Amino acid sequence: MIENQKIRPAKVIGPLGEALTMDTLPPANTTRWVVRRKAEVVAAVNGGLLTVDEVCQRYGLTVEEFAGWQRAIDRSGMPGLRVTRIQQYKSLYERQQKF
To answer: What start-end ranges are recorded for coiled-coil regions in this protein (predicted)?
Structure first.
Protein backbone atom coordinates (compact mmCIF):
# COMPACT_ATOMS: atom_id res chain seq x y z
CA MET A 1 0.00 0.00 0.00
CA ILE A 2 1.07 3.54 -0.67
CA GLU A 3 0.92 5.63 2.47
CA ASN A 4 2.20 9.16 2.95
CA GLN A 5 3.79 9.11 -0.49
CA LYS A 6 3.78 12.52 -2.05
CA ILE A 7 2.83 12.52 -5.69
CA ARG A 8 4.60 15.26 -7.58
CA PRO A 9 4.14 16.40 -11.14
CA ALA A 10 6.89 15.58 -13.61
CA LYS A 11 6.71 19.11 -14.98
CA VAL A 12 5.02 22.42 -14.27
CA ILE A 13 4.38 25.52 -16.34
CA GLY A 14 7.10 28.12 -15.91
CA PRO A 15 6.74 31.89 -15.74
CA LEU A 16 7.16 32.28 -19.50
CA GLY A 17 4.82 29.42 -20.39
CA GLU A 18 7.54 26.81 -20.87
CA ALA A 19 7.60 23.39 -19.21
CA LEU A 20 9.82 23.19 -16.13
CA THR A 21 11.25 19.91 -14.89
CA MET A 22 13.85 19.13 -12.26
CA ASP A 23 16.43 19.05 -15.07
CA THR A 24 15.50 22.45 -16.46
CA LEU A 25 15.50 24.30 -13.13
CA PRO A 26 18.52 26.49 -12.39
CA PRO A 27 21.54 24.48 -11.23
CA ALA A 28 22.03 24.03 -7.50
CA ASN A 29 25.26 26.05 -7.58
CA THR A 30 23.56 29.15 -9.01
CA THR A 31 24.97 32.36 -7.54
CA ARG A 32 23.68 34.94 -10.02
CA TRP A 33 19.93 35.22 -9.58
CA VAL A 34 18.34 36.95 -12.54
CA VAL A 35 14.60 37.59 -12.67
CA ARG A 36 13.85 34.58 -14.87
CA ARG A 37 15.65 32.12 -12.57
CA LYS A 38 13.91 33.45 -9.47
CA ALA A 39 10.55 33.22 -11.23
CA GLU A 40 11.27 29.64 -12.34
CA VAL A 41 12.04 28.57 -8.77
CA VAL A 42 8.87 30.23 -7.47
CA ALA A 43 6.82 28.56 -10.24
CA ALA A 44 8.35 25.18 -9.34
CA VAL A 45 7.23 25.56 -5.73
CA ASN A 46 3.79 26.88 -6.67
CA GLY A 47 3.32 23.97 -9.06
CA GLY A 48 4.43 21.35 -6.53
CA LEU A 49 7.66 20.34 -8.25
CA LEU A 50 9.67 21.27 -5.13
CA THR A 51 8.85 22.27 -1.57
CA VAL A 52 10.07 25.49 0.04
CA ASP A 53 12.43 23.48 2.26
CA GLU A 54 13.89 21.69 -0.75
CA VAL A 55 14.43 24.97 -2.59
CA CYS A 56 16.12 26.56 0.41
CA GLN A 57 18.41 23.58 0.87
CA ARG A 58 19.17 23.16 -2.85
CA TYR A 59 19.97 26.82 -3.50
CA GLY A 60 21.24 27.91 -0.09
CA LEU A 61 18.40 30.40 0.43
CA THR A 62 16.67 31.42 3.60
CA VAL A 63 12.93 30.96 3.92
CA GLU A 64 12.60 34.74 4.25
CA GLU A 65 14.51 35.34 1.02
CA PHE A 66 12.35 32.89 -0.90
CA ALA A 67 9.18 34.32 0.66
CA GLY A 68 10.32 37.73 -0.54
CA TRP A 69 10.51 36.40 -4.10
CA GLN A 70 6.99 35.01 -3.80
CA ARG A 71 5.64 38.29 -2.42
CA ALA A 72 7.35 40.26 -5.18
CA ILE A 73 5.74 38.09 -7.87
CA ASP A 74 2.33 38.27 -6.19
CA ARG A 75 2.49 42.06 -5.95
CA SER A 76 4.22 43.10 -9.17
CA GLY A 77 4.78 40.03 -11.33
CA MET A 78 8.22 39.25 -12.71
CA PRO A 79 9.33 42.92 -12.82
CA GLY A 80 8.99 42.98 -9.03
CA LEU A 81 11.91 40.57 -8.79
CA ARG A 82 14.34 43.08 -10.24
CA VAL A 83 16.79 44.03 -7.51
CA THR A 84 17.08 47.58 -8.79
CA ARG A 85 13.32 48.03 -8.62
CA ILE A 86 12.48 46.40 -5.29
CA GLN A 87 12.24 49.68 -3.38
CA GLN A 88 10.18 51.31 -6.15
CA TYR A 89 7.65 48.47 -6.28
CA LYS A 90 7.58 48.24 -2.48
CA SER A 91 6.65 51.91 -2.10
CA LEU A 92 4.07 51.64 -4.91
CA TYR A 93 2.48 48.63 -3.18
CA GLU A 94 2.41 50.44 0.18
CA ARG A 95 0.73 53.47 -1.40
CA GLN A 96 -1.90 51.23 -3.03
CA GLN A 97 -2.65 49.56 0.30
CA LYS A 98 -3.56 52.93 1.85
CA PHE A 99 -6.48 53.43 -0.55
So the answer is: none
Q: Burial level of 37, CB count in 10 A (0-12/13-18/19+)?
A: middle
Q: What is the pTM of this model?
A: 0.78
Q: In whole angstroms, what is the distance from residue 88 CA to residue 48 CA?
A: 31
Contact between 75 and 89 under an 8 Å Cβ cutoff? The reply is: yes
Instruction: Name residue 31's amino acid.
Output: T
Question: Does residue 22 sit within a domain?
Answer: no
CB 29 within 8 A of CB 37: no
Range of the domain at 59: 33-98
Segment 40-63, tens digit of pLDDT: 999 999 999 999 999 999 999 999
Tally the C-alpha atoms within 13 A of residue 93's C-alpha that lie toward its C-beta.
14
Residue-by-residue DSSP string for 18-30: -EE-TTTSPPTT-
The answer to whether the CB of 75 falls within 8 A of the CB of 28 is: no
